């Protein structure tokens, strides 16, 4: 891939993103400094390929960005056998009752919300990593802020059944910011903790 050493934001954020137990992280750095590569690596490292079900959920503000992140997952994921990605975006028609096998789901807020609540294609009990890319844009965009918060709350909600506290070591929540620390503050009430700025 031509990656010889981590960028500054990667050097700072990766140890937190790969930590056990998982931690929440908000990262802010200039465009092109490697944030996407960092959270993609974190998602790939958390996937259990023995389980063919969604485990990482990533929200992006646009269809194009979701596909772009997917391409990075595929590029970096070529070194991880059996990792699959699917897109929760408008136009991706999934038959009712389908059991998703892909471990990484990338989508836009409206469609992801639909997949979570209406179509029930996603089960919060299997999601261990939640990523909100371009969170500042999400928070500034009418509708996306509340949709993203609903998805994030859904993903981290305690489960019924036999998921006792011992089973609830949820993965990290992550957000990436390009501008404005106020955006970080806006997400803080829904569970993101800590901030890293490049
Ligand atoms: N450690 C690294 N070494 C070399 N190249 C890298 C490294 N990390 C990322 N890159 C490359 O740098 C470019 C920008 O990376 P990336 O898209 O992850 O940045 P970003 O911070 O998410 O940018 P944006 O803010 O525009 O979303 C990509 O082409 C990526 O492959
Ligand atoms: Mg990016």
Automatic annotation (TrEMBL):
One Pfam family linked to the record: DEAD
Region listing for Disordered, in residue ranges: 156-178
Helicase ATP-binding domain mapped to chain residues: 16-167
InterPro entries linked: DEAD/DEAH_box_helicase_dom, Helicase_ATP-bd, P-loop_NTPase
UniProt entry keywords in alphabetical sequence: ATP-binding, Helicase, Hydrolase, Nucleotide-binding
Keyword Zinc: no
Record's compositionally biased regions (Gly residues): 161-177
GO molecular function: ATP binding; helicase activity; hydrolase activity; nucleic acid binding
Highest rank taxon of the organism: Eukaryota
Protein name according to UniProt: DEAD-box helicase 25
Name of the gene encoding the protein in the UniProt record: DDX25
């Amino acid at each position: 891939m031509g990656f010889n050493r981590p960028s500054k934001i990667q050097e700072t954020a990766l140890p937190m993103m790969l930590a056990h137990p998982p931690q929440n992280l908000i990262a802010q750095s200039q465009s092109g400094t490697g944030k996407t590569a960092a959270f993609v690596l974190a998602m790939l490292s958390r996937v259990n390929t023995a389980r063919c079900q969604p485990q990482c959920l990533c929200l992006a503000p646009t269809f194009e960005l979701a596909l772009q992140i997917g391409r990075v997952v595929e590029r970096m994921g070529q070194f991880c056998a059996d990792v699959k990605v699917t897109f929760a975006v408008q136009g991706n028609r999934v038959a009712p009752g389908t059991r998703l096998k892909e471990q990484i789901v990338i989508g836009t807020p409206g469609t992801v919300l639909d997949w979570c609540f209406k179509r029930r294609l996603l089960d919060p009990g299997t999601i261990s990593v939640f990523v909100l890319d371009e969170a500042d844009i999400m928070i500034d965009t009418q509708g996306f802020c509340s949709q993203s918060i609903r998805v994030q709350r859904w993903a981290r909600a305690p489960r019924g059944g036999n998921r006792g506290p011992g089973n609830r070591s949820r993965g990290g929540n992550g957000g990436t910011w390009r501008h404005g620390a106020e955006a970080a503050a806006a997400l803080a009430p829904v569970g993101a903790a800590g901030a890293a700025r490049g």
